[in-house]
Amino acid sequence: MPDRANQLISEILRRVHEVIVEHDVTYEEYQAAKQWFIEVGEAGEWPLFADVYIEHVVEEQAFGNREGSQGTILGPFHLPDAPVLDAPFELPHRPDEPGDRTHVSGRVTGADGNPLADANLDIWQADAEGRYAGFMPGPPDGNLRGQVRTDADGRYEYITMIPGPYTIPLDGPTGKLTAAAGWSPWRPAHIHLIVSAEGYEPLVTQLFIDSSDYLDSDVASAVKPELIVHPQPRSDGEFEFSYDFALAPARTHAVA
Ligand code: BEZ
Ligand code: FE
Fold it and tell me: Which residues, including other chains, have CB under 8 Å from residue 166's CB and lie 6 or more apart?
């Protein structure tokens, strides 16, 4: 392990030193960067910064070649222990929840296609105005967060609201860095899921709404074409779409 730490830390510092030399970084810029590091810590934004600008490469490196459905980043807004829902499986929300109601359904299988009974889908999302319960003003605790289990045929269904796109916080150091670089701070509308079943690798993923803006300019670089869903209007004025998840078998770990 010290070898690995030595290798990685040395390489990161070498590349930082190279940038300083290649771009003739000044003392003023160095002091501004130090101040920015301090502000990220003070604002508690290291998880946000890392998940916006770094996690997608770790995810792709770790899971890009895995069997089964595509995953993408977890992000900083997951909360454990969301309620396990009973039929008719509707994510908890306010009586006057804004937005379009949508019915989501599909199957969870192994990568070989065998249906997985009692698989768990842990679901969380922003509301139609792009706000996450527990992290942003507006929605009450637990809004649009819940867990759903598959039936004996691996089928699941739930009802939710189509989420809206959102910006990362604009007034903190991550938002200021994004503005300083001239980049878009927006994430396209998406629903987060962790799909898990005994004996399989958990799948951390997101489903992106096809009609959303910013699919081509996600600040967190987390969109994959396989993860775009197409809600269709129903005769009752609500929407529906389906998505099937295929899980890779759990990796077996060598016993030391
Ligand atoms: C999210 O998907 O919720 C998210 C991901 C990365 C950074 C910020 C938010
Ligand atoms: Fe999100």
Answer: 126, 130, 131, 132, 186, 187
Convert the pLDDT of each residue in 192-245 to its tens digit: 999 999 999 999 999 999 999 999 999 999 999 999 999 999 999 999 999 999
pLDDT tens digits, 86-99: 989 999 999 999 99
Q: How far is CA 156 from CA 47, 79, 87, in A?
A: 31, 21, 10
- Closest residue by Cα to atom 2, ligand 1, is 75
Position 107: which residue type?
R
Rounded distance between C-alpha atoms, residue 148 and residue 118, angstroms: 9
In sequence order, which residues have a C-beta less than 8 Å from that of residue 209 and are 6 or more positions away? Answer: 162, 163, 188, 189, 190, 191, 228, 229, 231
Instruction: Give the integer Cα–Cα distance in Å for 212 and 209.
Output: 6
- Does residue 220 have its Cβ closer than 6 Å to ligand 1? yes
Q: Is 126 in the pocket of ligand 1 (CB under 6 A)?
A: no
- 46 CA → ligand 1 middle, Å: 12
Is 173 in contact with 36 (CB distance < 8 Å)?
yes
pTM exceeds 0.90: yes
* Cα–Cα distance, 75 to 71 (Å, whole number): 12
Tokens of 105: 């359904």
Give 71: exposed, middle or buried? Use CB within 10 Å, 0-12, 13-18, 19+. Answer: buried
The residue-averaged pLDDT of 178-194 equals 98
